[in-house]
Amino acid sequence: MLAEKVRKLFAAPHYGVVATVQPDGTPQTSLVWVRADDEAVYFSTLKDRRKYTNLERDPHVSILVEADGDYVEVRGRAELTEQGGRELIDSLSVEYTGAPFRAETPDKVRVVVRVVPDKILTVGAKPGTVERLR
């Protein structure tokens, strides 16, 4: 179960930085809209994006969110599904921008990326407030 402070940081309008592993082993990062529930962190991407192909090949992923000097990093494995992809991006868009998502054509395949944490690290703005939650 994700702690309440982790879920709060993974709520709009806090953006997430997703790190995936490229075929040559180097990191690739992307800025994404994020959401969390009691068990996992979610974001959406398109099937033709680098982060999707990276995660399909190697599901290891890290997501970092910062707010007012506090941040949380979630490391885990990505689960990819097309089911609910459009619905997720629309609801995230409403949370982050106040309007439904309209930035792509209907022929694009959107997916949900679900990340179940293996490790969670939080750091507070005050010195000495590092906490490993899992």
From TrEMBL:
The yes or no answer to whether the keyword Oxidoreductase is present is yes
List the Pfam families: PNPOx_N
- Show the stretches that span the lipid bilayer: none
Gene Ontology CC entries for this record: cytosol
One function term, GO molecular function aspect? oxidoreductase activity, acting on the CH-CH group of donors
User: InterPro entries, per this entry?
Assistant: F420-binding_dom_put (IPR019920), F420H2_bilvrd_red/Heme_oxyg (IPR052019), Pyridox_Oxase_N (IPR011576), Split_barrel_FMN-bd (IPR012349)
Taxonomy, superkingdom:
Bacteria
- Show where the Pyridoxamine 5'-phosphate oxidase N-terminal domain sits: 3-123
Keywords linked to the UniProt accession: Oxidoreductase
NCBIfam families of this UniProt entry?
Rv1155_F420 (TIGR03618)
PANTHER family associated with the record: HEME OXYGENASE HI_0854-RELATED
* Protein name as it appears in the record: TIGR03618 family F420-dependent PPOX class oxidoreductase
